[in-house]
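Progress note, sequence design subtask.
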């Protein structure tokens, strides 16, 4: 495959945009590659600036669950386009999308924002404002957007507060965030025993997708629910990725656990920039203008985004494609396992609805450290070989995969053929 135009576009982009990209993972630094610049997309396919066609397993990191350029979503956007693109004032379609989301999640009220980052940031502020406490517990390897308080990994021990992950986050702020090990009940138990009275919130990806795909253990998530109840802390499920991706009702439906607040993003915007957060009325009513906790957005509830999101969610509710998506993902992954095993390459995998992951390891990782131990060099070589064959997986072992309803049997079959011929070349 030739990538001449992508390479030229990347050089040009770097003159004007830091690193040539508007979100770091797109730079392909993890796999020493050159980012591909895209031009169009349809169904399961992406077409780049050089005219190369790829089978896409990123789906814009989740939203393309019905495939790219789905006609129903395009029509909804076009219809709204004729009526104007933004009013900076209330519209009926915001209420419509909120009600659609509420029909699948146990929450009373929702507020729309413009990204997942805004959603988690607002959840944290609301939790702190409501509890009048400052400390936050997160889990190492969980990503919640680039919120200052949440850009914190592990301290050196259970009782050590985190140091900031990024320059620009004051240590005086990061010290309020503890990053504990995912799926580790006793770390949370110990921490809550000594600091529980000052913990405003525990935030977690109930099915993690930002250290590769790692589902939370049921007992772990149940423990988070009960310890939050005990100490009066707010349990926040970050379902920006898993919401309407693993099931209509997200991970909370699969586990049967109701958090106090839920953050949404990705799928609910149908491919346009959207986030939302919601929960019990007693918490949500504390937001301005009814309550004192401030939160706002010029383009929040943008009509185009609401129209796209509404059309997608309505269609998802009508189709409920999640078990079909999971079957297809498992078909792909079982096929890959067979191919890898023939080459004596260890391969483990999992899938929930339309979200999946695989690791070059003997057994499924349970936390971030387990993922660190999986083979990065081999991942890189396999990734680039598959890319060369026209398969667009996420360019990092720390990312999940996504499948759409347009990934029909023949697409899966074609993918496996290409993976096999890619592997032959490494
Ligand atoms: C993508 C993601 C975010 C951030 O959303 P943005 O729209 O990129 O700001 C937050 N949490 C999780 C779990 C995500 O996957």
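Output:
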């Amino acid at each position: 495959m030739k990538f001449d135009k992508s390479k030229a576009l990347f050089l040009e982009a770097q003159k004007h945009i830091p690193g040539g990209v508007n979100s770091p993972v797109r730079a392909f630094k993890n796999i020493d590659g050159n980012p591909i610049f895209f031009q169009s997309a349809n169904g399961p396919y992406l077409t780049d600036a050089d005219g190369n066609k790829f089978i896409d397993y990123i789906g814009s990191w989740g939203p393309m669950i019905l495939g790219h350029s789905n006609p129903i979503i395009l029509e909804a956007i076009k219809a709204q386009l004729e009526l104007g693109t933004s009013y900076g004032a209330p519209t009926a379609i915001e209420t419509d999308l909120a009600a659609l989301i509420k029909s699948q999640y146990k929450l009373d009220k929702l507020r729309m924002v413009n990204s997942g980052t805004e959603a988690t940031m607002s959840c944290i502020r609301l939790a702190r404002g409501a509890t009048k406490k400052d400390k936050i517990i997160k889990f190492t390897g969980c990503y919640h957007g680039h919120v200052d308080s949440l850009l914190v990994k592990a301290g050196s021990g259970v009782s050590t507060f985190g140091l900031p992950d990024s320059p620009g986050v004051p240590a005086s702020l990061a010290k309020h965030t503890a990053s504990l090990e995912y799926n580790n009940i006793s770390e949370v138990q110990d921490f809550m025993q000594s600091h529980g009275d000052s913990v405003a919130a525990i935030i977690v990806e109930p099915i993690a997708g930002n250290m590769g795909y790692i589902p939370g253990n049921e007992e772990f998530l149940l423990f988070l629910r009960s310890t939050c109840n005990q100490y009066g802390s707010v349990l926040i499920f970050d379902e920006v990725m898993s919401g309407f991706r693993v099931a209509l009702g997200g991970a909370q439906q699969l586990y049967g656990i109701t958090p106090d607040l839920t953050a949404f993003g990705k799928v609910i915007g149908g491919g346009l920039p959207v986030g939302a957060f919601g929960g019990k009325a007693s918490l949500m009513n504390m937001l301005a203008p009814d309550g004192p906790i401030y939160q706002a957005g010029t383009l929040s509830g943008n009509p185009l985004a609401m129209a796209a999101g509404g059309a997608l969610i309505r269609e998802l509710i009508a189709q409920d494609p999640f078990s079909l998506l999971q079957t297809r993902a498992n078909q792909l992954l079982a096929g890959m396992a067979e191919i890898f095993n023939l080459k004596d390459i260890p391969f483990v995998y999992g899938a929930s609805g339309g979200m999946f992951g695989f690791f070059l390891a003997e057994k499924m990782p349970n936390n971030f450290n387990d993922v660190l131990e999986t083979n990065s060099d081999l991942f890189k070589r396999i990734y680039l070989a598959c890319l060369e064959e026209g398969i667009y997986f996420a360019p990092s072992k720390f990312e999940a995969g996504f499948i759409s309803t347009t990934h029909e049997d023949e697409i899966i079959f074609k993918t496996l053929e290409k993976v096999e011929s890619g592997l032959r070349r490494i």
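The pocket of pyridoxal-5'-phosphate is lined by residues 115-117, 120, 143-145, 205, 209-210, 238, 240-241, 265, 275 (CB under 6 Å). Work on this subtask will continue into the next period as scheduled.
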